[in-house]
Amino acid sequence: MAIPRLRATANEHERMVHPNQIVYNKMEHVVRQMLDSEIGVPIKTVKSFLSKVPSVFTGADLISWLIKYIAEKEGDTKKWLDKDKEEKEIAEQDALHIAHLIASHGYLFQIDDHVLTVKNDGTFYRFQTPYFWPSNCWEPENTDYGTMQDQDYAVYLCKRTMQNKAHLELEDFEAENLAKLQKMFSRKWEFVFMQAEAQYKVDKKRDRLERQILDSQERAFWDVHRPVPGCVNTTEVDFRKLSRSGRPKYQHQTLNATASGSCSPYSTSAAAAHAAQSQPSTSNGGPSTSTAPPAPSTSSSSSGSFRNNYPHKPGLRRCTQVQDTLKQEIQQLNSRLAKNVLKTSKVIENYIGFYEHRRLFDPHIVMLGSQQDPFQSHTNPWTYDNVDLWTHDKITGDISTRRLQLWEDSFEELLSDNIGRDTLQKFLDKEYSGENLRFWWEVQKLRKCSCRMVPVLVTEIYNEFIDTNATSPVNVDCKVMEITEENLKNPNRWSFDEAADHIFCLMKNDSYQRFLRSDIYKDLLAQSRKKVNHLLDVVDRAESFEEGFETATRQQQIALVLISGRTAGKCIGPVPPRSARLPSIARRPYSNLPTVISSW
């Protein structure tokens, strides 16, 4: 995935943001020791017939140096000749594995082939210039025409086509990439071509050996960042590393405070790499390890520190420095000291009160439609095959007592309900303050809209509610207006959060209380209670009728038992239980009792 590219003038705090920076630091520590003129890998210029190969070393020399380096780190004082065959094979495998990792990340490369591996033989390799190390060359963010590195890659491929050399001809996949980039940068392709032509003219003025080294280093850089299809791309970053939940986040005030002024855009061309080197190649042809950052540009502050490119809310960067983590912890502890401490008994009492107040609205505790339900709602549609609970208000146009009670319970419940929000909107329109709720709702939609709709909605909200000539201006104070104007300099989906929170508090403390005392809400509540009382009367009459029917049935059973006892000439025993009665007789009305007796 694309992550912010590191500037050449970035400090150590900004470099540590990359999730692979620890790996890069360890590799670069080893590479710097390899580049040491006294204890490092022997770098030489190989002479052949009518040609020279400058600044190279063999794979065998590299593996030998790594074996010695690993032995010193592990404290192995045993000489190489004294080791047995198995120990030598293990040491060679470890050294070869480390060499593969270093080569795959672009710290060294093979001059004859473009495979990012190392062989333990006489193959020639060359170190990459520190300017092209992966810790300095990150994938940039997207621009209107792709990425800045895509533009640099297009310049590099164009420059390759201008050189009539067999070893610089484009491969098949590079030709395809050039065609895609030409289509991507169609509107600015002339600028890309002019930039490539200017770099080509500068390269022609350099010494032949120096140009040969820079060409190979630049090509090795693109072999790492634009590898051959099918090869592993070591510059890819795992998304899980970028979103570790265990690290505290930076606050946006800290980001703005630590961000420095404007910076120059980073270039990956060979000309920039040559300009970044403070010294030319050493006497033995090895590249210089010291670098000089390019001169800062006078561009506008919009191209400033990449910290400013992060939105203020949410998705802030994670703390990767120890001092930042400690500052974050101190800030959290200070905020805890400012809070009021409650006893556990008081907290439990509050929880119990909240439970007793909200249990009536929980269908898992109080079953809908049961005798314990004070609102006499319809049955639970998830338990019974009945969706009247969802469709009753829409079909009849009435509002249930349960819903009205939820509105009175909290302002958040009122806003989360579509019917409640519409009812509140009608009330606010009558009081000529409906723009507050419309503004708050538009801000909520802005937070959840697609990225391409963010600039459109921000402009619409500003023109309708915030601007001095707005059609429906909202009532916000000067301080909130200043914060909103500052946020609109970098418009995003959270630009109006402060104003929306201010309007929300106004509606909750003022408009919501007046809504509960208004005639609109009282009429709805009276109508709903009247229907509930009517329903309760119907239920009571049905229960009384059922009790009377059971009493008559009981008397009928007693009469039947008496008649049967006299007919058989036996003593009358105890009255049989209710379960022993005859279902066919129990269901008959009690006007048929003489007919039943005569049949006996």
From TrEMBL:
SMART domains per the UniProt record, alphabetical: DEP, G_gamma, GGL, RGS
Q: What PROSITE patterns does the annotation carry?
A: DEP (PS50186), RGS (PS50132)
GO CC, alphabetical: cytoplasm; neuron projection
Q: Name one GO molecular function term.
A: GTPase activator activity
* Stored InterPro entries: DEP_dom, G-protein_gamma-like_dom, GGL_sf, RGS, RGS6/7/9/11, RGS6/7/9/11_DHEX_sf, RGS_DHEX, RGS_Egl-10
Q: This protein's superkingdom?
A: Eukaryota
Entry's Gene Ontology BP terms: feeding behavior; G protein-coupled dopamine receptor signaling pathway; G protein-coupled receptor signaling pathway; intracellular signal transduction; positive regulation of locomotion; regulation of egg-laying behavior; regulation of G protein-coupled receptor signaling pathway; rhythmic behavior
Give me the ranges of the annotated region Disordered. 243-316
The residue ranges flagged as biased composition, category Polar residues, are 251-263
Compositional bias of type Low complexity: which residue ranges?
264-305
Q: From the Swiss-Prot or TrEMBL record, give the protein name.
A: Egl-10
Species in which this protein is naturally found: Pristionchus pacificus
